[in-house]
Design goal:
It is found in: Secreted. The chain is mostly beta strands and about 140 residues long. It is about 10% helix and about 45% strand. The termini are far apart. Bound molecules: 2-acetamido-2-deoxy-beta-D-glucopyranose (2 copies).
């Protein structure tokens, strides 16, 4: 085999090999912006494999967040429940993240709890109203 061919194949293989260092993890964050009620926000997220447990975010605390790589074989999905209110009487269950079959890298999904509803934004986009709270 031609040496140049071997060398070129090697370069091409290296170039297209998935590289963890290049593919930054995706992050999902939950912000408490419950300006009027100043209620604590409770967050509980799960994927098929992981139960991330209960997390409490006080008003204007740093966002609760977690990071992960998209699963190459099975689509990564995180489903979360948020609660707010003096007795956590308001809640909403929704899919907070769905992976891309081609593996997304370095995404930042921000879910913001406001008194009126739950808003969503990604890097550089304006928050969009996504879900209303459900009262017990
Ligand atoms: C918090 O919510 C208010 C509306 O209730 C909005 O105007 C403001 O931009 C939000 N702040 C942050 C940090 O997202
Ligand atoms: C994620 O949480 C860590 C602490 O657990 C915090 O230092 C960091 O600022 C948070 N990042 C975002 C993007 O909210």
């Amino acid at each position: 085999m031609n040496l140049v061919y071997v060398f070129l194949s090697l370069i091409i293989a290296l170039h297209f090999t998935p590289n963890e260092a290049k593919c930054h993890k995706n992050t999902v964050a939950f912000q408490n912006n419950l300006t009027l009620s100043r209620s604590t926000l409770k967050v509980h997220c799960k994927s098929k494999d992981d139960d991330l447990g209960d997390h409490f975010v006080k008003f204007q605390d740093v966002a609760y967040n977690f990071s992960f790589h998209d699963n190459v074989i099975l689509i990564t999905r995180f489903k979360c429940t948020l609660w707010k209110g003096a007795n956590l009487e308001y809640h909403k269950f929704f899919q907070a993240y769905e992976g891309d079959p081609y593996c997304r890298c370095g995404a930042m999904y921000t879910w913001e709890a406001r008194d009126d509803a739950i808003y969503f934004s990604t890097k550089g986009t304006v928050e969009k109203l996504m879900y209303s709270w459900i009262k017990d």
